[in-house]
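Annotators were shown the component list below and the corresponding predicted structure, then asked to write short factual statements about the assembly.
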Amino acid sequence: MAQLPVKDDERLTTVGLLFESAAGLRRLFETRLEAERSLSNQSFEVLIRLARSPGSELRMSELAAQASLTPSGLTRSVDRLQEQGLVARRVCPDDRRGAFAVLTTEGRALMDQAIPDHAAHVDEVLRDLYTAEEEQTLSDLLRKLRDHLFGADAAWGLTAEDADTCPGAE
Amino acid sequence: MAQLPVKDDERLTTVGLLFESAAGLRRLFETRLEAERSLSNQSFEVLIRLARSPGSELRMSELAAQASLTPSGLTRSVDRLQEQGLVARRVCPDDRRGAFAVLTTEGRALMDQAIPDHAAHVDEVLRDLYTAEEEQTLSDLLRKLRDHLFGADAAWGLTAEDADTCPGAE
DNA sequence: CACTATTATTTGCTTTTGCAACTACTTTCG
DNA sequence: CGAAAGTAGTTGCAAAAGCAAATAATAGTG
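Structure shown to annotators:
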């Protein structure tokens, strides 16, 4: 089938919708997370990625990529979480330049509560909006974009097999 | 067809992909916009929405919603653009509390150049990634989400018929 | 009409973010 | 080995963003 060309305007619109949707969700979640857990959406992003990683830990640089922060942004974010007692740093024994961010016991406990709550909130927003098929499609299309923008690696998909770069865990 | 339930994990992943995609695009565009036009992505968002509105103007509050900023964030953003001579404020004659942000001649000239460039950049990223059909699907799914999160109004779709709340234009 | 409630935007102040420079380590290569 | 180049993370500083309170104008009510 001859594909009708997509016009510039439509592409710009799609990008605009993507930005608006992300910002809208961020604000929505932030309100609740702030109220119920005193967490910003950004902190939560950092925590959830740790929580979903093997050993509840991730290299700083990897975490920065996953949480959409620059290295310096992540350093401060982890500083804050550390002050709150939710995260600790662990030097990488293999490479002493490197550091892991690790969920503390307290952080783990918090996330064990917060993640189901958050998932329920996400459900609330998406469940009645999309069919299961649409949701799958959206996920696939977004993953394609994400992988294209970064390097097919990073993030959420949680293809666990990497991440454990630093065998000498505590 | 009985819809297989979507698992919590998958929903969380989808949301994560959305955040990552948006952040990735923002960084990508920002780099080029900064280099070629000395504009942040945020400023550009404000400008492009003005440029695509009838009369190149929009109420502050409407613009804030479209650009994913809080009212105060938008005030400062417009302050900066005004200092750069790209935007001006116009008091709404109907309602003297209200203000319009308007593209100046200079701002219009800038955007007449910048938008095609930006559109080309967006094309570069999306053209070979998605089929026309996929792109349409993505756009539809995102629009549904955006409309659900806000009030089916706002933004890009540019259903021009509103916006002209303030008849007494200059 | 005076009086209270609402709405639109701005301002004061604090937090978050980013860039660029810096430190500390590792790797490469002569 | 030892200097040069590269990598991981942190810090100083400045820009941007948000919240809450202030301002200004409009709407509603008795």
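Statements collected:
1. DSSP finds six helices and three strands in chain A.
2. The longest helix of chain A spans residues 8-37.
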